[in-house]
Amino acid sequence: MSQSEQFTHHFADRLNQAIIQKQTPLVVGLDPRINQLPSPLTVDNPGDLTQVAIAYSTFCCEIIDVVADLVPAVKPQAAFFEQIGPLGMAALAEVVDYATAQGLQVIMDAKRGDIGSTATAYASAFLGRKPQSSWGCDALTVNPYMGEDTLQPFVNAANTTGSGIFVLVKTSNPGSHTIQEKRVDDQPIYSLVAKHVEQLSANHVGETGYGNTGAVVGATYPEQLSELRTAMPHTLFLIPGFGAQGGTAKDVAGGLDENGLGGIINSSRAIIFAHELPQYSAATSWQAAVEQATRDTIDKLADGTTASKLR
Amino acid sequence: MSQSEQFTHHFADRLNQAIIQKQTPLVVGLDPRINQLPSPLTVDNPGDLTQVAIAYSTFCCEIIDVVADLVPAVKPQAAFFEQIGPLGMAALAEVVDYATAQGLQVIMDAKRGDIGSTATAYASAFLGRKPQSSWGCDALTVNPYMGEDTLQPFVNAANTTGSGIFVLVKTSNPGSHTIQEKRVDDQPIYSLVAKHVEQLSANHVGETGYGNTGAVVGATYPEQLSELRTAMPHTLFLIPGFGAQGGTAKDVAGGLDENGLGGIINSSRAIIFAHELPQYSAATSWQAAVEQATRDTIDKLADGTTASKLR
After folding, report:
1. Contact A79 B121 (CB under 8 A)
2. How far is Cα A175 from Cα B119, in angstroms, rounded to an integer?
3. Residue A294 in contact with residue A67, Cβ under 8 Å?
4. Residue A5's pLDDT is what?
């Protein structure tokens, strides 16, 4: 195997390579919502799930057309596709295929988690290229509540297929205190999870210094983000909560390393529904609004974080 | 609304009614696995996902034909369907529809969980009858790691649609110690989750004394099961880990109340793949093996638990 083949076969290297190429850690979240689709894609009858699924697929693929040259990755949110049933899941598969064909990394945000052979089934569903996996994603978000043994099948699949996982560590919502902030032996639960994730990542580091087991750490907790960046030097971060959820560039700055790598920052609603925002009302089309919002977000991140080093 | 209509509109009442009618708390888990399908359904080419999806749907629907008169509910495991992609999800929808048509309660084991509007999307995907929801299930398993605010959309949907949720509290796998057993203020995390679940359930109790927010508590931890049964008097338990995972009737006994209600006990592999077991090798067909394994499991539960009171 040549060095360049090895490079592209490790998820963290592939992602970092894409970040360097696109000069930004911004990830666009694909969260289609029926009531917010731009007018050319408005669905007359929300009960007609065939029509809704076509609209979702079209909407996401058109966004991909706009952002494919601008960002390293997209993050489809499985829930919004699952919401409309099997037709939605077929649309989700189309979106994954299309994003992959456009050279984007695809991070499936499905927050799966289960025991033993069931976790193996989820892992083989999502992780790796087709036909190795049915959905063919580059990475998957995973929930750690059931324990270390339930993460292992995902880690094994990631190692084998050159894909990655992002384990929920400290999420962006207010209720993340319920379990994640509870203190055990003077450290919060999220730190315990973080230590395990860092160990898993350190066990399988690529050429760019990061492993394939990442962590989800919310932009809405900037102190914890900086603290975890230091504590988890081999771990890629997926950082939600930027933009519509209230996180600013300053808030996410601590999630990146000194070269602007090590983290990807997700924005969903503030980009994909830019047509609803007053500052983009002059855009000539909803796609033009998406493009402008993407460029503006990239600039904001470059102004406020080490993402500036990527330019 | 008449009393009987009210009765059937609360998930716990509907489930308890079905348990009383079938005289057993046994739930059959639908976990199709390509390498274990009985010979009439063997798939020649595992890469032909259309063929696999048809085999999974046929396998599960034939099991439903066998068990519909014997048990109150089935529990499809979403992972095994998701493993084969969108065609698998279409097969899953067929299985849910078929089980519902045969009068079974359908508990979707998908362990979903996410924040705010994303949780609402998952809830509206699964909870409630069609077309109110796209999948039309009676209940859904839910992961609490992201916090209390992430459970609320599921609770709201359950209240509105007469469906239920089962929140992961203490799972059946060895790694459940990683987070669930960690002690905070001298009580384990699973007890904190259990208290919140009991409160949610107590807020929406049906005529049979149980609420619509249930708990997943593994059969492999019998002491915790008994302790939680006492601490959670309004909470339905979904008890996995019986049978193939090692739990015995004695182990699950503490999960039921004095009338044999309050809990459902899942068995998947030991029933649906009974054709592989030596004790059923004399069965005239794989379906006959499933029927005999179901009847034997029902008898074991009646012998070793208060499920005897249902007869």
Report:
1. yes
2. 13
3. yes
4. 41
Distance from CA of A304 to the nearest CA of B (A): 27
Look up residue A130 and give its amino acid: K
Q: What is the pLDDT of residue A2?
A: 41
**What are A16-48's pLDDT values in tens digits?**
999 999 999 999 999 999 999 999 999 999 999
> Residue B143: which CATH number?
3.20.20.70
Parallel, antiparallel, or unpaired for β A183-184 and A187-188? Answer: antiparallel
HSE, side-chain direction, 13 A CA sphere, residue A85: 26
Residue contact B145–A149, C-beta within 8 A: no
How many structural domains comprise chain A?
A: 1
Is B111 assigned a catalytic role?
yes
Question: A28-44 b/e with 16+ CB inside 10 Å = b?
Answer: bbbbbbbeebbeeeebe
- For residue B141, the cross-strand partners are B166
Which of B15, B49, B8, B17 is CA-nearest to residue B32? Answer: B49
A171 interaction partners in chain B (CB closer than 8 Å)? 115, 146-147
Identify the helix (H) or strand (E) that includes residue B168. Answer: strand B164-170
Separation CA B56–CA B151 (nearest Å):
31
Minimum-distance CB partner of B148 among A31, A90, A175: A175
CA distances (Å), origin B278, targets B165, B252, B286: 36, 25, 12
Domain ranges, residue B124: 3-310
Tell me if the bond preceding B131 is cis, omega within 30° of 0: yes
Give the tens place of pLDDT for each residue, A145-161.
Answer: 999 999 999 999 999 99
Q: CA–CA separation, A225 vs A230, rounded Å?
A: 9
Q: What type of residue is A242?
A: F
Q: What is residue A58's predicted lDDT score, i.e. its pLDDT?
A: 98
